[in-house]
Design brief:
elongated; 79% helix; 0% strand
Length: 92
Amino acid sequence: VTPLRKIFGWNALVKFRRMLGLFAFFYGSLHLITYSIFDKSLNISEIAADVWQRPFIAVGMLAFFLLIPLAATSTNKMIKRLGGKNWARLHK
């Protein structure tokens, strides 16, 4: 959102930033769940082997695990709990 806002001057996008981030987390969660159930039948050892074997799956898993703390701290209560500066540093 920030690059689009800076390049094109679309300041109205700021209102949708949190929703877009949470949607990305939801999409990643849904993708991981369908991959785990339909492709690997919830077999943890097969999933781990697949992550180790294929770099693109490892990158996807890393990205998903990096989204978890961002999604968990996206509520107004968590912003207040962390403090504005700490929250902004985490989300940067």
